Amino acid sequence: MIVIKTEIEGVLILEPRVFEDQRGYFFESFNLLDFEEHVGPVDFVQDNESKSSYGVVRGLHFQKGEHCQAKLVRVVKGRVLDVAVDIRPGSPTFGKHVAVELTEDNHLQFFLPRGMAHGFSVLSEEAIFQYKCDNYYCPSSEGAIAWDDPDLGIDWRIPADEVILSEKDRHHLRLSELGQDILL
After folding, report:
1. What is the pLDDT of residues 59-71, one digit of tens each?
2. Nearest residue to 70 (alpha-carbon basis) of 111, 31, 114
3. Which residues are catalytic, by number?
4. Coil, strand or helix at 170
5. Residue 10 and residue 41: Cα distance in Å, rounded?
6. Is the pLDDT of residue 111 over 80?
7. 137: nearest Cα among 41, 69, 59
8. Which run of H or of E encompasses 174?
9. Which of 52, 61, 69, 150 has the fewest CB atoms below 10 angstroms from its CB?
10. How far apart (Å, rounded) are the C-alpha atoms in residues 144 and 99?
């Protein structure tokens, strides 16, 4: 596994070793010993999967307090732009984001430590997205930031008039409106 650091401390792009031949390919999508050696200790407790069509933007979501989650995400079908926004109070990169294109062909994975808001946009006709979490989802600790917060300056690579949002994701506040006390 190749580990690529980003401008946000702890946010990493992971590139697995892929073995290809006439039959197809094989790679380890997760190996705890390898992960802990290159990234650090983790105890993933929940795996999630979503299916979305072109133009869907999910996010920017996070869990607060004791329910914060680190995530390891990847695409098994299609292509997405995956985004991590640093919302750790006092972080030198607070409010900054990193975006990476994850595809079924590049097999890249994106590791987001606790304290990140997370979202993605679907760039292909359809995408199947998988992620591991190191903490259980807790509805009462859910938080979110507006996907189109102009202060974040995220280019989702989808024309605004083609973006598809859930009803809930249409009504989130900007990061500057949330206040440090309700983030983490």
Report:
1. 999 999 999 999 9
2. 114
3. 61, 131
4. helix
5. 12
6. yes
7. 69
8. none
9. 150
10. 17
The structure tokens 């190749």 sit at 2
Mean confidence (pLDDT) of the chain: 94
Q: Give the pLDDT of residue 162.
A: 97
Q: Which residue has the tokens 């031949």?
A: 21
Q: How does DSSP classify residue 168?
A: G
Residue 181 has pLDDT above 70, yes or no: no
Which DSSP helix (H) or strand (E) runs through 128?
A: strand 126-133
Q: What token pair was written down for 126?
A: 């359809």
Q: How far apart are CA 55 and CA 152, in angstroms?
A: 19
Q: Which two three-digit tokens encode residue 113?
A: 């430590």
Q: What is the pLDDT of residue 179?
A: 73
Domains and CATH numbers, the chain: 2-178 (2.60.120.10)
